[in-house]
Amino acid sequence: MCIRDRSHGFLTRDTRFSAVEPYDVEYFKKTLPEKDAVLTEKTLVEKYNEEYTHKYNGLSKCVLRPRTAQEISNILAYCNARKLAVVPQGGRTSLVAGGTSVFDEIVINLEKMNKIYELSPYTGILKLQAGVILENADKYCQDKGFLFPLDLGAKGSCQIGGNLGANAGGLHFIKYGSLHGNTIGMRVVLANGKILDTLDAHRKDNTGYDLKQLFIGAEGTLGIITDAAILCYPKPLSTSVCFLGIPSFDDIKAILIKAKQRFGENLSAIEMMDDQSYELIQRHIKSTRVPIERERYPFYMVIETHHNGPQAESDEKLMSFIETMHEHIPTGILSRDETQRRHIWSTRELIADAFVKEGMTFKYDVSLTVDQFYELVPILRERVGTRAVVGGYGHV
């Protein structure tokens, strides 16, 4: 584990890269003529060198904020010729400093690329720029009767381009799948400035290589995603959410199996957190009351279902499931309205914030089989002892 600080430790700047000179800045200002598109003042650049966990500090002295794919193309073609290193940056919500410079790389931030082009009522395909904030994309879809397939705790800040670059799974992964499956097309600028454009691809397209898949999860290393076409889904008529106290991880596995059998494609989310994660929320997020306060359990779960029937019918089905699983679920709360649904979800979404407030955080997003899903946590606890707090949470 390497912590990058201002002394850089054993990290050495690659001498093959050039340093930014005043004439480079002048070129960028001509390429990006709009006000505040090129930032070089220390006070303005500072926030782009900060990252979510506060462990790392970037050292960039130049931030570029383009508005179009062509502007990014011009920038990258120039930087490639000049051997200037760049770092693509979105909403700076990465828990692993994915958009933070190490030395004096130029930061290319996409926050000004925030246009939503269109949502087809026939196909459900949403076309938008990569700098659109996830929450804004979802609100746009919901206003038109659709649901964006991705939902994250950082939705108020994270950007679509960063979501694609990280191949974010999100809370609704169990129902809508990954961005690999929901991305219909994209526009990408390669390191040499060339533009790869598949934005107008159709959902059914068997014409050769599916090149866009290379850039999903590539963290901006192969090119900068500037625009995307994402498949969205009809908005459900009703949504039910419950918060459960669970005695063991074996109970969680049993609940998962039965929930899939009972609800099928109506199961839209199933999340777990351990008691350590839950306790940190209570300790550090004073503005939020946790759903279950009087009793403590080793684990907790959030289950959400989507239905195209009346809300009362949807709630009744979820409550019936909880009652039939009483040997695995000693206590639980079913949301009564939208306010309580949001409250339950905020408990899950605030875990990352709680860990950051506890101290220096190292987050590992691991993919394991359900049988092995939680085994890593007690192993780590045994190894680190009292030197660190270890918690486990995520999509089951």
Topology:
Layout: H1 22-31, E1 38-39, H2 42-45, E2 63-64, H3 69-82, E3 86-89, E4 106-109, E5 116-119, E6 125-129, H4 134-143, E7 146-147, H5 160-166, H6 173-176, H7 179-182, E8 183-190, E9 195-197, E10 223-231, E11 233-234, E12 238-246, H8 249-263, E13 267-274, H9 275-284, E14 299-307, H10 311-324, E15 331-334, H11 338-349, H12 351-358, H13 376-384, E16 393-395
Helix pairs in contact: 9-12
Number of strands: 16
**How many alpha or pi helices?**
13
Strand content: 15-25%
- Dominant shape: globular
Distance between the termini: 26 Å
In sequence order, what are the helices and strands, one letter per element? HEHEHEEEEHEHHHEEEEEHEHEHEHHHE
Low-pLDDT ranges? 1-8
Q: Which strands sit side by side, in order, in the main sheet?
A: 5-6-10-8-9
Structural class determined from secondary elements:
alpha+beta
Helix content: 25-40%
